[in-house]
Design brief:
binds zinc ion, mainly alpha, 426 residues, 15 helices, three-stranded antiparallel sheet, 9 strands, two-stranded parallel ribbon
């Protein structure tokens, strides 16, 4: 009530004697006599807001800010009494004050704290990128993932990797980005938006940052020869170097991509079709490991699609638990897969459903690394791997077919004889 610009004490009742004023105030506050009566009795010029014309009560205090007299400004009798306030600047000595000086000080304190917070974050981020990871120590998987990030997500001036921005993008990319972050190959760029970074201390007084990772810019924390940052980005973007991967390295990344794609589709079917919350547990991991050993991504789409429909019928016909439905779908896919393998049945390849978000990692791998001419979803990783293994002789260090493109050109007859690319519509 005291944070307004202080008014001056009113003078309209100044014609009253000291005694009359004292009597009036007693009748107003204590006896609570009607104001119309008081107005008539004392011949007052107004019949409301008497308190504005009452004298301010001086206290023994002075203002802690400007040293002026602290007063109590009379209150309306229906309201609570006012707190003592500085007659000059409006400051309240005790308790919560919102005078302009106090608000100003609070703002200064806030700005100072914010500055210190940002300095702590900045120091911590610079500390984390101070130890660079030698390029030679990177695994094939890490190199390929970096290649994708540089090619598709680097800033125009090639100084950082742009934020993934949405939680949806993060969900679809974190299988590839998180391992890079954990091994400090990617660090949070010091020019990121700090409003998405929290700061805490652990019990050893070490600074711990809690970070909304999908909002961060990324720094590539890798050292290669004496390449500048700009040269490093250019180097990573040229997939030629990453192509010098062993057959097995290619195979492992391909399987990772295949599992990732299958998992996205499986998650969609659980969440959207069966209305069961998808959780990527050991049973799923186990199934996807098995499927990607034997089938292309397109064939796995086929199996998931078919048995999601079966499971949906099963769910609608019978009253069963969520767990039951979950296990039913996994079991059906597994049984069918085993039957197809045992009997060498043909299984059609589905295209990637349009409602599943594009994955930049898959696109990069198939286009730049495998040069798969659009066939990446239709070849089983192990098929390419085994043919290459058989083609290796003692002197060859790298894969016989460096790319799926080479392989398709040479083994075209396979695709016609075995009809592995037969289209099926959903
Ligand atoms: Zn003051
Ligand atoms: Zn104040």
């Amino acid at each position: 009530m005291n944070h307004y610009q202080l008014k001056k004490q009113g003078t309209k009742f100044d014609f009253l004697s000291q005694d009359e004023m004292t009597a009036l105030m007693k009748e107003y506050y204590e006896d609570r006599i009607a104001m119309a009566s008081l107005k008539a009795k004392y011949k007052l010029p107004q019949n409301n807001n008497f308190e504005e014309q009452f004298p301010w009560e001086k206290t023994a205090e002075t203002c802690t800010l400007c040293n002026c007299q602290v007063v109590v400004i009379p209150h309306h009798r229906n309201l609570y009494p006012n707190k003592p306030v500085c007659s000059n600047c409006g400051h309240i000595n005790e308790g919560h004050c919102t005078c302009s000086s106090c608000l100003d000080m609070k703002r200064q304190v806030y700005l100072q704290e914010e500055k210190e917070r940002e300095e702590r974050i900045s120091n911590q981020l610079h500390l984390e990128e101070s130890v660079k990871i030698p390029f030679e120590k990177l695994t094939a998987e890490e190199k390929i993932s970096l290649g994708m990030l540089v090619r598709n997500m680097s800033s125009e001036d090639l100084t950082y990797i742009v934020p993934l921005s949405s939680k949806e993008n993060w969900k679809n990319s974190k299988d590839f980005v998180l391992p890079l972050y954990k091994s400090k190959i990617l660090t949070v760029h010091p020019e990121s938006d700090y409003s998405f970074i929290g700061i805490k201390e652990n019990k050893f007084n070490e600074t711990i940052l809690s970070i909304e990772l999908y909002k961060m810019k990324w720094n590539i924390n890798v050292l290669k020869d004496d390449l500048s940052n700009y040269e490093l980005y250019n180097y990573l973007a040229r997939a030629e170097d990453q192509l010098k991967l062993t057959n097995e390295e290619l195979f492992l990344y391909w399987k990772k991509i295949a599992k990732h794609e299958a998992q996205l589709y499986l998650a969609y079917n659980f969440d959207q079709v069966l209305k069961i919350e998808f959780k990527n547990d050991f049973a799923i991991e186990n199934l996807l490991e098995y499927l990607t050993n034997h089938f292309s991504i397109g064939q796995i789409y086929n199996l998931i699609w078919k048995y999601t429909n079966n499971t949906l019928r099963f769910k609608e016909e019978r009253q069963v638990t969520t767990n039951h439905i979950y296990n039913y779908l996994l079991k059906c896919i597994r049984n069918e897969a085993e039957k197809i393998i045992a009997n060498s049945y043909n299984l059609g390849h589905f295209d990637k459903p349009k409602y599943i978000q594009e994955s930049s990692f898959s696109d990069f791998f198939f286009s730049y690394i495998l040069k798969a001419n659009g066939q990446g979803y239709r070849i089983t990783p192990s098929e390419f791997f085994e043919i290459n293994q058989n083609n290796l002789d003692d002197t060859q260090e790298f894969v016989q077919f460096k790319t799926v493109g080479d392989y398709l050109n040479t083994y075209k007859f396979l695709s016609t004889n075995k009809e592995p690319f037969k289209d099926e519509e959903e």
